[in-house]
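Example (one chain per record):
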Amino acid sequence: MIGLISINYKNAPIEIREQIHVSSEEINELNKYIRKNIIIDGLFIISTCNRTELYFDHNLQDLTQNIIFHKLISSMIKFKKVSEGISPYIEKKFDKQVFTHIFSLASGLESMMIGENQIVEQIKSSYKICKNNNMLSSSLDRMIQKSLNASKLIRTKTKIDKGAVSVSYAAVEKINKAFKKKSISIVNIGTGNTGQLTLESLIKKKYNNIEILNRTLNKSKKIAEKFNLKYRSIEHIYDLMKSCDVMIFSTSSRKKLITIKDTSKVLGSRKNSLLIIDLSVPTNVPTNVKKFDQINLVNIDGLKDEVNKNYLKRKQEIAYAKKLIFQLVEDFAIWVKSKEIRNVITQFNKEFDQNISKIHNSKSQKVLEKYKQCIIDNIKSIEFSKDQDPISIISNVLLKK
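Predicted structure:
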């Protein structure tokens, strides 16, 4: 069984998502922790600002589906040291539901911004980590590769991604509506993937009075030189807060980058309002900064208006994209079933040969060998209906003790 545990923006607010977020450094640690509690064949973990998802491969021989889900969810909750109260926000899928989900995810159909491309890089990045740590089963590996193939097909055959859109693009649209002048002062905190996408969108919109802050000064310098912008160390964050018009946060820091106390001191010298856009998960800005009249705080969930407009523009492409994905999922499901059948036959072949070896009569061995091959050939030729589970049927026939 291929299963999925998902906490995403559709079923959980940002306050829940940031509790369960898994950093790149934590992916293999969570993998090791889970494998101490349950034997699984493979695990793929992806965690972004909009979702944390665990894809797993289990043979179901010793445990029921419900027990497997329970053990995995329990392990994740204990590893992240969060309350079991998050359970209602967890979505569970298995087999073809999972294939449909990951193919749709890679194609941008599950994103807050329909058709956005950032998710492709996020899948590739997580895949690289999981692959390097030997976390993937062959089925999970192939599923991810096929999802990336699906993404290419959907983006080629439809207009689902026409017009660059992403959460960072929505943030820039928010700035566009709030300010008429392109000369406004913008501070961009964070130089990761989201931070760079935000910078690219800002520059495309002709904003150039931008200053970059990052915890690593060398990285700030490198990005600043790339875009021909100014940069400073993150220690200057409050100095810049005194006069800038917009601050955009998109770092991977697990701690808040500003405090209520220090922000309050700075605001005393400000005359104009300050727009703060927090694209980080976990959030970089305390939500209660909203109590200050001068601050307009927008986080990822606050960008849903832009998301909805984008959805309406691209809605007409979704039906065709889903039709293409449906066929891709059917093809992949056939491969998975074929692989499972081959695994059962291999196990049967091994056990049968072990029993044959105990028989010392060579003629009897040859007869049994032919009988074994006849069974295998007949099984391969069976055409199962859609409502049948070929693995259960074959396992019960061949491997039942």
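Caption: The longest strand covers residues 2-8.
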